[in-house]
Amino acid sequence: MKENIRPVLLEELGLRYYLNSNHNFGRFQCPYCSSSFEARISDVKASRIKSCGCLKVKHKMCDTKLYSVWWNMQGRCRNPKHPQYLQYAGRGITICKEWVDSFISFYNWAIPAGYIEGIGLSLDRIDNDKGYSPDNCRWTTKNIQARNTRSIKITNTSGYRGVSWCNTRLKWRASIKVNNIYIGLGYFNLKEDAAKAYEYYVRFNNLTHNFTSILSDTEIEELYKIKEEEDDRSI
User: Fold this and answer.
1) pTM higher than the cut 0.90
2) Which of 96, 116, 153, 169 is most buried, by CB atoms within 10 Å?
3) Distance of alpha carbon 102 from its chain centroid, rounded?
């Protein structure tokens, strides 16, 4: 994802003598703090330069969970190659301009809004059909975020999308409807495991279905790792 968010070329500055040869330089706008800076055009195209330097100089937070949250938000809404792009950008979920332009602006909202590093908070949209912005976001635990999904039928006794009780097998059943065809995903002793199967199927197949988020961060990372390996084999 990171390589898809690059500085914007504002003006070509022509050839300059640099490192014993001539190179094309340009003036760019930093995608993180909106400052302008000059750099070799080839360095920006090759992603050797990704910002004006603010990533390392101004906040030094590239390795924090909060920065990862911001990056993932960018990917879901702006990067067509992101596994969750269809589930977010595909249904009109956007990021407000101030957060698109600057991690610092996101940070300045996050801390007063209650973010604390290392306690497992998730960025939650209050209205699931609206985008990421200060007035529609909050910090919650995963359990609260899981309940903030698009409406689940009142007849659903599991509390999880795509999960129902099977009286004949006395197990929880996971199933999903794709192109008007119901697909069985298995039977499980625990409804949480059935919900994981549903979420796994949606994420793995890049479906636009909403789901109750229950997979851990580690399980999600492993899922996408497996998916990337399969995609590479299919090329």
Assistant:
1) no
2) 96
3) 16
